[in-house]
Write a structure and sequence with these properties.
Distance between the termini: 64 Å
Largest sheet: 6 strands, mixed
CATH superfamily of the largest domain: Response regulator
CATH class of the largest domain: Alpha Beta
Strand order of the largest sheet: 8-7-9-10-11-13
CATH topology of the largest domain: Rossmann fold
Number of strands: 13
Radius of gyration: 24 Å
Strand content: 5-15%
């Protein structure tokens, strides 16, 4: 007698809804990458919440990116689904909802270290006071620059950048600030308003005002009146880690505390900060030589010959004014250029290495990994251009 065996039912595919109050393709890319690994089905939408009435009956979990909008957050909480928020931009309206966030303090500290490394002593910040992440980025920035700053001025502006009243406080701050001044506005859109106002006042960028943003929106930064330097935040990793946390919650594993924070990737240098202020003329001359020869290998003896001092003397001056050795400063400048090339084009890694003055691709890999914690190829994959 034969007995038929019933084939085991295939595992049910989980479906996850992704609710976005604003479109962020880099986050979606990270979510999609994790979803592909787990064979999830995704419902992606940034439509009005009213259209989501039937969603709770169709999905197993929810990933959301929301602003401080009470109606939206209350609706999402009423869905009573395993949920992970992907930022703290809801200003606490989602309560103790599990979340993954960007490390905004680290973003601000990175901005401070970068601008301080350019030799500035006068600083100006612009931010929206009613947004937690703006306050945190500026807080991290102030922590770093305050020890050696002569002037620090913080300017808080309104929520809507379209408001005609914004120009008043921006213009007043630009007029008042001693020059040269380094400006950090923790959002690229805010930076554009500041830059346009500065140029209309007849100020030069970066000679009078060097401007650094955050988010590295490629379109905004590249097509700004003066191409804008900006901190690249790892939105792709944010989406991936949020999806991974939701997967654990849906499988009954409690979320970890504290909130996982994704660190920034690095500063993408463009023309708006292409300046080095050094009170020592010999160090300034050395930096000028490095900038204009960054694409080729060169010996430190070439620098000392141009500057006209000994290796030991120049090394002491670098430590005194830049808090780095000559070798560390050269590597720092080469890596900055490499990051920009890796994320703004499709040059092969070998050609990026050559364009940044590295003798071999393997040596470039080693130096880049030591500086960033990842290989050039991984950096390009995990921090794609918009």
């Amino acid at each position: 007698m034969r007995f038929s065996k019933t084939a085991p039912a295939p595992p049910r595919i989980k479906t996850v809804a992704v609710f976005l109050d604003w479109y962020e393709p880099r986050i979606l890319k990270g979510i999609a990458r994790f979803a592909k690994e787990k064979h999830w089905g995704l419902i992606l939408d940034n439509a009005q919440v009213q259209k989501w009435a039937a969603i709770p009956n169709k999905v197993d979990g929810l990933l959301c990116l929301t602003g401080p909008y009470r109606a939206t957050t209350q609706f999402l909480l009423k869905m009573n689904l395993p949920t992970v928020a992907m930022s703290d931009a809801d200003e606490g309206l989602l309560g103790d909802c599990s979340r993954v966030g960007l490390d905004h303090l680290a973003c601000g500290r990175m901005a401070g270290e970068y601008l301080r490394g350019l030799g500035f002593e006068n600083y100006l910040t612009f931010g929206k006071k009613n947004r937690t992440f703006f306050r945190q980025r500026i807080q991290g920035f102030i922590e770093v620059v305050s020890a050696r700053a002569r002037v620090i001025q913080q300017v808080w502006i309104g929520e809507s950048l379209a408001h005609v009243g914004l120009r008043g406080p921006i213009e007043a701050a630009l007029r008042k600030a001693p020059k040269p001044v380094a400006i950090f506005a923790p959002g690229d859109v805010t930076c554009l308003h500041v830059m346009r106002c500065a140029l209309e006042l007849g100020l030069r960028v970066p000679e009078d005002v060097a401007i650094l943003g955050a988010d590295n929106d490629e379109m905004l930064c590249t097509f700004a009146p003066v191409p804008l330097s900006s901190i690249r935040l790892n939105y792709t990793q944010l989406g991936f880690e949020a999806a991974a946390l939701l997967d654990k919650i849906m499988r009954g594993r409690p979320p970890k505390r504290p909130v996982p924070l994704i660190p920034p990737v690095g500063v993408i240098s463009r023309q708006s900060t292409n300046i080095m202020l050094v009170p020592d003329a010999q160090v300034a001359k050395a930096i000028h030589f490095i900038w204009h020869n960054i694409e080729r290998p060169f010996a430190i003896d070439e620098i000392t010959a141009v500057v006209g001092v000994s290796h030991a003397t120049l090394g002491r001056l670098f430590r005194q004014h830049l808090e780095r050795s000559i070798v560390e400063q050269i590597a720092h400048m080469r890596i900055d250029k490499a990051k920009a090339l890796l994320t703004s084009g499709k040059l092969p890694v070998k050609e990026v290495a050559e364009a940044c003055g590295f003798n071999t691709a393997s040596y470039f890999n080693n130096v880049f990994h030591a500086a960033t914690g990842m290989t050039p190829r991984k950096f390009r994959l995990t921090t794609p251009a918009r």
